[in-house]
Write a structure and sequence with these properties.
This protein is an alpha/beta fold. It has a single domain (25-232), classed as Phosphoglycerate mutase-like (Rossmann fold), CATH 3.40.50. It contains six helices and nine strands, in the order H-E-H-E-H-E-E-E-H-E-H-E-H-E-E. The chain has helices at 10-14, 52-64, 79-92, 125-131, 155-173, 186-194; strands spanning 24-30, 72-75, 97-98, 109-110, 118-119, 136-137, 179-184, 210-216, 219-227. Strand 2 (72-75), helix 3 (79-92) and strand 3 form a beta-alpha-beta unit. Helix 2 runs parallel beside helix 3. The two termini are 20 Å apart.
Length: 238
């Protein structure tokens, strides 16, 4: 398993998925740098956009991803992931689907210390449609927002959500030859990987990095982690 290199030959990278493809591949993409990533915790907001560097990271990511032959693009409902998915959509021609279960650990909340976290609504469907025209929705998003001001999600609850996402992913894609991208978040991405990967301690995923998972015979295997070779060295952030 390589940190920044994809274990695929150039021919494999450029091929179009078809019925002879031996594996389903899942690409776990962390969003580009958000304004929160560039701020101390005390100054962070509930649903940030991207920094100027994040916009550039998303552009470089989007320029590289068409080489993977993606067949489906699914994104968390946070603005930073929606913006990253929007850039990918423009380069691949794929229509992003919004899936609530990809959100970051904790949900949408305000505050920076335990006991002071306050649940916030998150964008509702109309707000997402207004800002991200053409996006589709895998899940019902309520009028009072995708998070609906629920309390802070505990790590135990997030871990159970990761288990459910693994089950849903396997059920939905195990018998396909697809190449599916999940645009998601650092902590939840690692929680998801830990459900099938024995190594419990993973590095923090870099912004706009990609991890590749192969799914065959109902079994998932982490093939590549934290790939960021599509970014110039000075653009790499966490």
């Amino acid at each position: 398993m390589h940190d920044t290199a994809l274990i695929l030959s150039p021919d494999e990278l450029s091929r179009t998925p078809d019925e002879s493809a031996p594996l389903m591949e899942l690409f776990l993409i962390r969003h580009a740098q958000s304004t929160n990533n560039a701020l101390p915790e005390t100054e962070r907001v509930e649903d940030p956009g991207l920094t100027d560097l994040g916009v550039e990271q998303a552009r470089c990511l989007a320029e590289w991803l068409p080489t993977l032959g993606l067949t489906q693009l699914i994104t968390s409902p946070f603005r930073r992931t929606l913006l990253t998915a929007e850039a990918i959509s423009k380069s691949t021609g794929l229509t992003p689907s919004v899936r609530v279960d990809l959100h970051e650990v904790g949900g949408c909340y305000r505050g920076y210390s335990p006991g002071r976290w306050q649940g916030r609504p998150g964008m509702n469907r109309r707000e997402i449609e207004a800002e991200f025209s053409g996006f589709e929705f895998d899940d019902v998003i309520r009028d009072d927002g995708w998070w609906a001001s629920k309390p802070y999600e505990s790590w135990d609850d997030a871990r159970q959500r990761a288990v459910r996402l693994l089950e849903r992913t396997t059920m939905e894609f195990a018998q396909t030859h697809g190449r599916v991208a999940y645009v998601m978040h650092a902590d939840f991405k690692n929680l998801f990987i830990e459900q099938f990967h024995n190594k419990s301690v993973l590095a923090i995923p870099r912004n706009a990095s990609v991890s590749r998972v192969v799914l065959a015979d109902q079994t998932m295997q982490l093939a590549d982690y934290n790939m960021s070779g599509h970014l110039r060295p000075e653009m790499v952030t966490v």
